[in-house]
Design a protein that fits this description.
CATH architecture of the largest domain: 3-Layer(bba) Sandwich
CATH topology of the largest domain: FAD/NAD(P)-binding domain
Number of strands: 18
Oligomer: single chain
CATH class of the largest domain: Alpha Beta
Shape: elongated
Structural class: alpha/beta
Number of domains: 2
Radius of gyration: 25 Å
Largest sheet: 6 strands, mixed
Helix content: 25-40%
Strand content: 15-25%
Distance between the termini: 49 Å
CATH superfamily of the largest domain: FAD/NAD(P)-binding domain
Length: about 575
């Protein structure tokens, strides 16, 4: 028998016993809707795919069925905008938002933001869209970027002015409070008051299909219950794969052993579910290695660790690789200063941040200087406690301590075969001479960041790349509809946020996580309402207030006009 493809396994499970597509009517408006459900026995072959131990994409016999008009899977910024706009524009519609975790927000909880914006005119949007594609060697889709830029102001107005989400600028732009958790806390009670049916601990596991081009609903699990929701509109805002490195290894060429993943529930569920349809295998994924941390790729310090900020994120750090030699200007804005930071670490076999006791004391006294994220900002210019973390993590295999540099090198060499102690000691001696002269003769690092490493005891912190999420996977068109490889639409199915493709190349470009979620969630809801549910979307769906002046921030650091970060990239 011919070998079946992975897509055939997944799609076949969803086709067995599939019901007819639901009509384009509002169930909650008193019009009729299908009450039948799609059922099949478990397809065990699909569950054997590496990284898919939970059998995502496999339709099973439900314990109950129900009807809805719109089902949104995921509760990040894309999911919230999709669900809320659908409910605001169609108050009588039944809008369900499914979240697999017990808390809401997904990776938006860790995100920066772009702040207020203006809609670009057609010519500007097309040119900037083309530039976005050029900057990724044409991996990104210029047309998708164009569409996003055309509505950037409308979506920002909906979020910041209409719904009062706060933000501030401090070099880069942050949500009020430092990260996107404040955004989710602001939107949640509004969505609940509007009537969005928010269900936590509810993991969507499969699409319900009439055939590979027609989606009729979604299957989700809550505890031991399997529920089928028949719905004419399903919007996948499921996030990336950063918490499922086994699955991600099948979609990316990145070395997963050098990367530590954060986030919540970023398991690639949406990517696997679309493979039930004519979409087929998920498309290009970017591993968004947005920062560095102390760790070995399997274990690491806490995401918000001050020791991680000091040892892995400062321009004044000194990095050596698996041979014991420096390989970069650690303050290079094109490496450590932007979203390419993690790629710098991934390019080497090992990376160690070398410090002496004075470096530790200086950071504790408030010498962290790099504005990078909400948690890193808390360390900038402020006293921090590193000693308690050094005690807490004493004995882990990714932190070394010794009285002399030779002993430190020998300790590393005991675990890293390629590490040459003599070269390492000479390298640090050269670095100290650069610090004394104020000139880095090798890489040109600025004098202010050249801190000598002379006073024992000495430390070496193994550095890993920190992956907050991935970007890409699900192919969409200009209306956020899921399509096959040639652009033919899978009816009833939309996708929003970092699970969608077309935005970035091999490196995260900056500014495309939250804005992509906002645009795609918004566009998906509006297109589905008008083209499937027959609801006219109001011209002022974004509200009547503007929030387009970046110097009138609503957050605690409003008015700081420092430029930089994602917003400055125009992406």
């Amino acid at each position: 028998m011919a070998e079946l493809s992975r897509r055939s396994f997944l799609m076949g499970a969803g086709l067995v016993g599939a019901t007819a597509a639901m009509g384009a009517t509002l169930a909650a408006c008193g019009q009729s809707s299908s009450s039948s459900s799609t059922t099949s026995s478990t397809n065990t072959a699909a569950t054997e795919v590496a990284g898919n131990a939970d059998g995502i994409g496999v339709v099973v016999e439900p314990t109950s069925t129900e009807d809805a008009d719109v089902v949104v899977v995921g509760s990040g910024i894309g999911g919230f905008m999709a669900a809320m706009i659908a409910k605001e524009q169609a108050p009588d519609a039944t809008v369900v938002m499914l979240e697999k975790n017990s808390n809401l927000g997904g990776s938006t909880n860790y995100a920066e933001c772009n702040g207020p914006a203006s809609n670009a005119d057609e010519a500007t949007a097309r040119l900037q869209g083309l530039n976005a594609a050029r900057n990724t060697n044409y991996i990104a889709n210029s047309i998708l970027h164009t569409e996003r830029l055309l509505e950037a102001g409308d979506n920002a107005d909906w979020l910041f002015a209409k719904h009062g989400v706060g933000w501030y600028r401090a070099g880069v732009v942050f949500y009020d409070g430092g990260n996107g958790s404040s955004c989710i806390k602001t939107l949640t009670p509004i969505a609940e008051e509007e009537g969005v049916d928010i269900r936590t601990d509810s993991r969507a596991t499969a699409l319900l299909l009439e055939d590979e081009y027609n989606v009729t609903g979604v299957q989700y699990v809550n505890g031991s219950d399997v529920i089928h929701i028949n719905a004419p509109v399903v919007i996948l805002a499921t996030g990336g794969m950063s918490t499922n490195k086994e699955l991600l290894a099948q979609y990316s060429s990145q070395d997963m052993e050098k990367i530590i993943g954060w986030g919540e529930g970023q398991d690639g569920d949406g990517h696997l579910m679309v493979e039930q349809t004519a979409h087929g295998r998920a498309n290009h994924l970017t591993v968004d290695s947005l920062f560095n941390n102390v760790g070995n790729g399997t274990e690491s310090l806490a995401y918000s660790s001050p020791l991680g900020v000091a040892a892995a994120m400062q321009y004044s750090d000194c990095f050596v690789n698996e041979y014991g030699i420096r390989f970069c200007d650690e303050s290079d804005g094109g490496a450590l200063g932007t979203s390419q930071s993690g790629k710098l670490i991934e390019s080497q076999g090992y990376v160690f941040s070398i410090m002496d006791s004075k470096n530790i004391a200086d950071y504790e006294a408030g010498e962290c200087s790099r504005h990078y994220s909400g948690f890193a900002d808390a360390c900038v210019g402020n006293p921090i406690d590193l000693q308690s973390e050094l005690e807490q993590y004493d004995g882990v295999d990714y932190i070394y301590k010794a009285d002399t540099l030779e002993e430190l090198g020998n300790a590393i060499a005991a675990n890293v075969d390629t590490f040459v102690v003599e070269d390492f000691v000479e390298e640090i001696a050269n670095y100290n001479s650069y610090a004394a002269s104020g000139t880095d003769a090798e890489y040109g690092k600025a004098a202010e960041y050249l801190w000598p490493i002379e006073e024992g005891p000495f430390y070496a912190f193994q550095i890993c790349s920190g992956m907050l999420n991935t970007s890409g996977g699900i192919r969409i068109n200009r209306d956020a509809q899921v399509t096959d490889a040639r652009g033919k639409v899978v009816n009833g199915l939309y996708a929003a946020g970092v699970c969608t493709s077309g935005w970035d190349g091999e490196v995260y470009g900056g500014g495309t996580c939250q804005t992509v979620g906002m645009w795609a969630g918004s566009r998906a809801a509006r297109h589905a309402l008008e083209n499937i549910l027959g609801v006219k979307v109001a011209a002022d769906w974004m509200g009547n207030e503007r929030s387009q002046d970046p110097n009138e921030a609503q957050g605690p650091m409003g008015g700081d006009s420092a430029q930089g970060g994602e917003a400055a990239l125009g992406l």
